[in-house]
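Supplementary Methods S3. Complex input for the adenosine-5'-diphosphate-bound model.
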Amino acid sequence: MAETETAEERLTAELEAACDADVDTLRELAAAMAEEMKKGLRSEDEAKIKMLISFVHTLPDWNAKGIFYALDVGGTNFRILRVSLGGERSSLEVQDMDRQHIPQDLMKGTSEAFFDFLASSIERFVGKEGKDAVSDSGKRRLGFTFSFPVKQTSVSSGNLIRWTKGFAIKDAVHEEVSGLLQAALDKRRVNMQVTALVNDTVGSLALAHYHDQDTVAAVIIGTGTNAAYVEKTENITKSPGLLTPSGQMVINTEWGNFFSSHLPRTSYDIELDAESLNPNEMAYEKMISGMYLGEIVRRVLLRISQESDEFRQAADMLSRPSILSAPYITAMHQDKSSELKEVERILRDLLQIKDVPLRMRRIVVRVCDAVTRRAGRLGAAGIAGILKKMGREEGNSRSVVAIEGGLYASYKKFREYLKEGLEEILGRDFVARNVVLKITEDGSGLGAALLAAAAAEEVGKKSS
Ligand code: ADP
Ligand code: MG
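Predicted complex, serialized as structure tokens:
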């Protein structure tokens, strides 16, 4: 058997073995995640996971009224929303929404160009409104969802710790980001005040909690990955004397930077990391999220092309970073046709590999499967780690975990692997009884609008 094994079969089998995280490994990872979370609550300096304080101590209920805006800046897209809140349950209504890609050149340019671009998009968005849209309520209020690690200084301000997800706007690092956006808005005379600065995970948690009070955590799996959850203030030992009316605080874990020797890393992951914009950072994110899945698959296929005659013609195309983005992986992996026609089409049209035999197309599907299965299972370990940290990995309390992001929403097999991994770690019956994985959409932005409304109410209370 071993004598007749082809290079591509050997490399694929090696990949499958290296990516396999059995249930014991997943449990080790969940325990390590919970431990790292504790460390981050003790001190940010030594911790891999920063466990950032969000300044959100009470998740908003449905009492707020008025028109609020949200700007959601992710890693790939940004959205602007106008939301109306009617002061009753289920009275949240999206009145208008605009969604765009973030231009590549702005991701590595100057802070001024980036924030002016955001402000100009908002200017255009509100420009569509009637002239008197906000005449008697004064300034428009904006929740700014900014999906990068920020050290918050208040509910509406915070400093960028570092960029992730391929961003490298150097002069913005350590700057106060809502101030940068506010200055850009003011310069264009847009009548709008940034009243909440939130991480996407926190926004997502706020919206999911608005709909279901048992929501205890929110996870993002889009361009990058991150999670937020509700912690007791007494456990946040790095901020002794932190007092909140609820006794709680939403923590933005920044779990993408999680690292453990139990992570099933391969040579492809190590190379990807070394060539990334942020080497030695975000090891967990780089094994899970949409920005990286295609890159891992590309590196495996490139390796195959170097050792297998049938793929040799593709080595050039496969040397191009980012050519295989996550949506292609989804499409190939979920190709249901018996002849794998979709795989054939993508290999031909995107990578210019012609006449790929079915046997090779199956190899490509196996590579996608190994990488995605690992990603889903690692995501499950993270979620189990958070539940463990909250003491919800056993017992009988209902825990809703909101999950949002382009990768999770669009990739059924990823969702299935994540669910399966969680069931293996925590037990199928336990998960069926106590854990709800709830897929959410636009929660990061809508939640920011809710938090902007809550912040406005707070200011109102204080001044009256
Ligand atoms: P952001 O991360 O910018 O907030 P999203 O949550 O919409 O934005 O996630 C976008 C990311 O989701 C893309 O960069 C891509 O990696 C991933 N994605 C989008 N569509 C698909 C798809 N069909 N299959 C797999 N991943 C996808
Ligand atoms: Mg997002």
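The two ends are 81 Å apart (CA to CA). The mean pLDDT is 94.
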